[in-house]
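User: I'm putting together a teaching handout on how multi-component assemblies are represented. Below are the sequence lines for each component of a complex, exactly as they appear in our records. Could you produce the 3D structure of the whole assembly as structure tokens, so the students can see both representations side by side? Please keep the chain order the same as the input.
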Amino acid sequence: MTLPNRKDDDVGPPEPRRRFEQIYTEHYAAVAAYVRRRADSPDDIADLLSETFTTAWRRLGEVPAGDRALFWLYGVARRTLANHRRGETRRTALTRRLGEELATWAGSPADRAPRAARAAFLRLSDDDRELLALAGWEGLGSAEIAKVLGCSRIAARQRLHRARKRLAAELAAADEDLTEYGPRAVRLAKESA
Amino acid sequence: MTTHLDDVVERLAPAPVPAAPLTPLARDLMNEIMDAAPEPAAQPRRRWRPLVALPVAAAVAAAAWIIPSALNSTPAAALDIQEEGGYYVIEVKDLYASPKVYETQLKNLHLNVDLRVVPATPSFEGELSMDTPDWKPMTPFPYPDKIMSIDRPEGCVGVGRTCPIGLKIAKDFTGSAGVRLGRAARPGEKYEIIGSLTSVREPMNCAPFYGRPVREVRAELRKRGVTVDEYAIRKPGQRGKDAQVTTSVPDSMYVRWGGLSSYGHALLVVSAEPMPDALVKELLVKDGCPTS
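Assistant: Of course. Below is the structure of the complete assembly, with chains in the same order as your input.
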């Protein structure tokens, strides 16, 4: 609800709460999609969302304005996932309930790629997988990936190129028909042979 | 092309689903996150000016305000408490602190004052109201020399409003007092302190309201994101508590009063008889609105 008589100098929730509410409501769906694609089980999605946005609240002053807030949140979610995989997760009654609700939303975690392609992808390092996922799952370009990873645009482009090269090599090693993935995949695989 | 490689990666992701909806549970998580940790210190924030809303009959003497002292030694203090002669002068610094934090600070002063933070409509956000157990309706406030409000001298507009900005409690006060502090409501919450829809900062301040047909007021409220879900029908000579409450009334009835009941919802008091023009003007003046 927006009350029309509200002005910035009105008595109301303090500014940090308003800003956090805006960030949360704008980016909740995108962050939920990000963690859903990477979580080992749908039950983990609520924990990861909770921890990612808790970090955003604690470090609200560091969250950039506008669309860049989402890339910052992806960066936090990425580190949260790493901690989560090390077992550093706190689960509350609320995140448990939200987890049940999100499990219904998240559906089956099954992917739609050939088993060999999945195996090739899993043989890559965590960093390579994340670079490729940011491009292939979130649809980010190298400039946006640079913001998520906190590196320069040139570095992001080079790292993405190398990750693609290694994926092509892994696909070739798995005897996949690289022509299916385009001539560049063939060339990248040859480069790394 | 690289897109082909990205395609194979794309197909490794779980099958697409619609965007995760921001359900009430997801909103609860948002509020839990903010309530669980203190506000980020690096953020610039406006100093909170609380208003103490004692009802008119009990609004008492004004006094000087805030002298720094060592009473706020904890960095996370939710209340700003200063000593002034034989009194503690109390200001609320953090509306969203845990009730435990308030309790601890008040207990440290050996005061039996129970402070509750409750949802309040916009004109009462940040205000304190006395809710003292020993105070019988329609009788004078029982501790006029022990608990005092400090009123805001300027910019206080509204029927029956005193707009106080502080609370003074005598150090030797041994009775028990209850104080309710209004904060903004969250989606789904009912308001516990309700101001008129026409007060300053409320949705219908200076908008067509008093004596207007229900149809028109409901449309104006809808534009402001507020749905009317209850009507109290007042008949001539009838007392407020005897009004019939219903969920729908004829569009042609006239609006006499209204207030937000829960987040995004309002109650209207209506009547079959139009309001006299003179009364409408008087109410507009009291709300600080132009009369023509």
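A couple of points students might notice: Chain A has a mean pLDDT of 78. Chain A touches chain B through 72 residues (CB under 8 Å).
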